[in-house]
Amino acid sequence: MTELKQADFTALELQADGAFLEANFKYVLVQDGVNIYRNGILHLGLKGDYYIMETIACGICCTDCARPFLPYPLPQIIGHEVVVSVPQSIRKNGSTIGVVEINNSHKSHGSSVPCPYCESGLSSQCPARITMGINSWPGGLAKYIVVPKFNLYQIPTELNLSPNTATLIEPFAAALHGVNTVWKGGKDYAILGAGKLGLLTIAALAISRNRFDHDITITAILRTEKNKEEALLFGANKVIITDGKPIEESFDVVFDTTGSADGLEYATAIAKNEVHLKSTHGQPMLGFKHFTELVVSEISMIPFSQKELDFNCNGSVNANIYVAESVPEEITKLITDTNRNIYQNSTANADNWLENGGGSVLMSEGSKLPRFDLAVCTSAKEVDDIVTPNSSHDRSLVRVRGAILIANPKENSLLEAINSRQIKITTSRCGDFNDAIRVLSQPTSSTLVQNLERLITHQFRLEELPSALDIVSGKQKTEKKLLKVVLTAK
């Protein structure tokens, strides 16, 4: 196979009402980038270094089902768990297939534009990024895909992954990133839910035990017996079947992989220190409108204390802090007594200031990114307004991987639990593909690689996408156990 200079094809696009309609596409490499034509009209021009590649397989996940609820325009070709055929001319060590990281940042396509996010190793959070199958960039559920040069990760031949199984690299990388993010000092770790993400999180915990301070116990908490065997197979030490009822046990850290309000409440009730959340479903939940945006920006919610002003500093200082107008004066004084800078104003005024040069001021005053290092507030509405201060863009007031500190919470059960029980709600999003491939390539991972095949329970052709998505969303019933649905181009 040679490198493609252009590709003409038809693809099914997801519409705002959840239906699919066919559209004609043409991808053309040009001197300084790639042009994407839709129904004969230039749809998107991307600058930088790109490939046009043939899609071999692409998985469907719950984010694809939630795509109509996400704050990005439709129609669009969806899909972001994509495996491509690598042209002979760029193959490394005999690799024939590759996976594609889903965030197209400055770094991805070799841009020379200065970017503090990409330069700080946060390219997945670059404000200029577009996201495969989610924001602007046409996704992998089509015959061809545009691939930023530095987003291509070739699968080593010795890893011996089938194309279908390789679709799990993206969610496994995300699971590993979550495991790397949480507190490592606990002994008891629980995973709530045992769908694909839950099972991959169990696997990531089991294979990363040496990253913890001591040996840990991994407990899978399931509503029914359905995936008990898989939970044990992927590394759980024990399984608890709840039948929808409360349990008396508690755990240092609970990973909530359910994507539901009930799941988050349950996880919070049984967590002693931390609940880790990854779901991006786009729906209001527990009095919050923008929980998905919180997760996308990897922002945590934690109880206010002077100690937590050092949250996730990584050797530096959280120098600049946004304080909501409702926060009492005594808490503001506690912050200023630590010689930090505070900005206390409305979220609208704070956003306007940041967008008109304030971000540069913050960086000159000690912040690594052009956003506040932390925020302090008292209500769910203030959390929403901090995370999404302006509907015209998706930039939070708080930097990515920062935190919102909750002080004197008002009329919200989750915020009250955070403060009264000193529980942290942490979040994470996309992971490092290199890390995932490295971990799976280790000799100790050989059994896990074999077991990954068991997660692929359904396979369809691209033209069967509507039915496949209905199965994943539960609109269409299937007699087989449902874990992972993959679509193939041939």
Characteristics:
alpha/beta; 26% helix; 7-stranded mixed beta sheet; Quinone Oxidoreductase, Chain A, domain 1; 24 strands; 490 residues; 2 domains; 6-stranded parallel beta sheet; Rossmann fold
How does this structure look, described?
Helix 6 links the parallel strand 13 (217-222) and strand 14 (238-241). Strands 5, 6, 7, 10, 11, 23 and 24 form a seven-stranded mixed sheet that branches. It is built from 15 helices and 24 strands. It has helices spanning 62-65, 116-119, 163-166, 169-181, 196-207, 228-233, 261-270, 291-296, 329-336, 347-364, 380-387, 413-420, 433-441, 446-452, 465-473, and strands spanning 6-14, 20-30, 33-38, 41-47, 50-60, 81-85, 97-100, 103-104, 130-131, 144-148, 152-154, 188-192, 217-222, 238-241, 251-256, 271-277, 300-303, 320-323, 341-344, 372-377, 398-406, 424-427, 456-461, 484-488. Helix 4 packs across helix 5 (196-207) and helix 4 packs across helix 13. With 490 residues, it is of the alpha/beta class. It is 26% helix and 28% strand.
